[in-house]
Amino acid sequence: MGQRRFRWLLLSGAAAGLFCAASVHALNTQRLDPAEADTLQAILRKLEPLIAVKKQDGTANILTWEELYGPLSPDERALLDAFRRLKAAALGATSHYFGEVSGAVDLVPVGPQSIVQGGEVKPLDPQFLPRAAFEAYERMMAAMERDVGKRLRVESGYRCPAYQLYLFLFYLPKHGSSIVETNRFVALPGHSEHGHPPRQAVDFINAEGINGEDHPEEFEALPEYRWLQQHAKRFGFALSYPRDNPHNTSFEPWHWHHEGEAR
């Protein structure tokens, strides 16, 4: 996808307020009530075909608000509005609120990328990074390959707020329909480094498909991770959620962010 089309998509997403409902829906953040849970399941069913197409053509990460709201009923849109109003601080977390990105972002496609599992080559979903983060990542991987003969792939780079909300909703049932618990693992829109280019997050995965998502200690044991601990700072990258971090967020050894290189 060319940059011109991406800029149009991003700017059109700024008009999301057209969908916002006037009524205010107060969510049960400890556990969705049965009506909320039913509405959530209806939303996920309606969005599944859209997300499948967006993943296939490589544009899921730059999903617009209009595309997300489009298939939904007024009640379902109102539930999305309620999630968008949530702030992590009200859920007992200290995640920084970055706000929802607006304006054009100079994104660069990463890849194509693949991993090898069980002798089978598996392509990764298309990813984007802001230009500065992409160029730093490429320099860092070249250095890692020289030192240890390995490179990490980008499993998740830039994610727009609309797709971030979809991911939060998708994982919510897997955490007992608890917004508070889900927020420990998936950021709310506007709170994610993945959607904030000045502090762009990158989730790494190694060539054999180890990403640590279910078992962080597996990624922590990789020579690639040890290399990052020693050298990532030179390229402007920092670990976002170390052990016992103050953000009430689980340990994520795969999740780093680009702060910019020292001059």
Report on this structure.
By secondary structure, the chain is α+β, with helices and mostly antiparallel strands. The protein has a single domain, classed as Muramoyl-pentapeptide Carboxypeptidase, domain 2 (2-Layer Sandwich). The protein is built from nine helices and eight strands. The chain has helices at residues 3-13, 34-57, 65-69, 74-85, 131-148, 161-171, 179-182, 216-220, 223-231, and strands at 107-110, 114-117, 120-123, 127-130, 153-156, 200-205, 237-241, 252-258. The protein has a four-stranded antiparallel sheet with strand order 5-6-8-7. A hairpin with a 2-residue loop joins strand 2 (114-117) and strand 3 (120-123). The protein starts with a helix and ends in a 5-residue tail after the last strand. Mean pLDDT is 87; it is low at 1-23.
Distinct helical segment count: 9
Mean pLDDT: 87
Shape summary: globular
Low-confidence stretches: 1-23
Question: Structural class, judged by helices and strands?
Answer: alpha+beta
Beginning-to-end CA distance, first to last residue: 32 Å
| Element string (H = helix, E = strand) | HHHHEEEEHEHHEHHEE
Quickly give the CATH architecture: 2-Layer Sandwich
CATH top level class name: Alpha Beta
Q: How many separate domains?
A: 1
- Seen as an oligomer or otherwise, the chain set is single chain
Topology, number of strands: 8
The biggest beta sheet reads:
4 strands, antiparallel
Strand residue percentage? 5-15%
Give the spatial strand order of the biggest sheet: 5-6-8-7
- What is the alpha-carbon Rg in Å? 18 Å
